[in-house]
Design a protein that fits this description.
single chain, 6 helices, about 210 residues, alpha/beta, 8-stranded mixed β-sheet, about 30% helix
C-alpha cells in the first residue's frame, strides 16, 4: 500500500466541507515567501468562511512579487520571527531530499512548508512524497516523483482559485491553515491526512 501511494498523484476534491470546531481555534499565521501568490492564499481562507484578520493571518516575507525568494533555511528563520506555523513557497527549486534535510527543524518548531512542485531537475521516479513539506502542482501540470497533491482549476469555485502552479500552492497553504484553525488539536500530519483521505486518486503519469 505504501509503495502504491508513492506512485499516485492525489487531487483534492472540490467538495471539501468544513465543520465547526468544538471551540474557537487560536489564530494560525501563514507566511508566504514574497507576495507571489498572496491573493490566492487570502482567497482560499475567505472561501473557507474564515477571517483573514482574526482567524488566519497571512503575511508575505517581501512585498516584491517574486523577489527575493528565500531558501528554506532563511525562510524558516523568517517565519519563526513572525510566529508563523505554516510556510508557502512558489518557485522552481523542489528537491525531494529537502524533506529529509529539513524534517527535524520543521517538526521541532511545529512548522509545515507548502512548496510548489516545480523541480529544476527531474526527481527520481519513485521518490516518496514529503512529510514535513507538502508538494503541490496544478492538475495536469508538471508532475513526477515526489509529488503529493494536485489541485484542479477552479478548486472551491471561489476567490482562491488560480490557473498557475504558484497560485494553487498558495491556495493549498491557505486551505491547510484554515483546517488547522478549525481543528486546533490537530498537528500538520493530521491536516495532511485529512486532505489525503478526502482526495480523489488518479494514476501517476511522469
Amino acid at each position: 500500500m505504501i509503495k502504491h501511494l508513492r506512485t499516485i498523484c492525489i487531487t483534492l476534491c472540490a467538495g471539501f466541507t468544513f465543520s465547526a470546531p468544538a471551540s474557537a481555534g487560536t489564530p494560525v499565521h501563514l507566511r508566504i515567501n514574497t507576495s507571489h501568490g498572496l491573493s490566492n492564499a487570502l482567497g482560499a481562507v475567505s472561501d473557507a468562511g474564515l477571517s483573514v484578520t482574526d482567524d488566519v493571518i497571512i503575511s508575505p516575507s517581501s512585498e516584491f512579487n517574486g523577489r527575493p525568494f528565500l531558501p528554506p533555511d532563511e525562510f524558516m528563520r523568517d517565519a519563526l520571527a513572525v510566529h508563523a506555523t505554516i510556510m508557502s513557497s512558489s518557485f522552481s527549486n523542489w528537491d525531494y531530499l529537502s524533506d529529509t534535510a529539513h524534517y527535524l527543524k520543521l517538526t521541532q518548531q511545529n512548522l509545515v512548508h507548502v512548496f510548489a512542485y516545480e523541480p529544476r531537475k527531474p526527481q527520481p521516479p519513485h521518490a516518496p512524497p514529503p512529510a514535513a513539506f507538502t508538494t503541490v502542482n496544478l492538475t495536469g501540470g508538471k508532475t513526477g516523483g515526489g509529488i503529493e497533491f494536485g489541485i484542479p482549476k477552479g478548486y472551491m469555485n471561489g476567490r482562491g482559485q488560480d490557473t498557475s502552479a504558484s497560485g494553487v500552492t498558495a491556495q493549498l497553504a491557505g486551505l491547510m491553515a484554515s483546517l488547522k484553525y478549525r481543528h486546533p488539536a490537530w498537528n500538520w500530519f493530521d491536516v495532511k491526512a485529512a486532505l489525503r483521505i478526502t482526495a480523489a486518486n488518479f494514476p501517476h503519469r511522469l
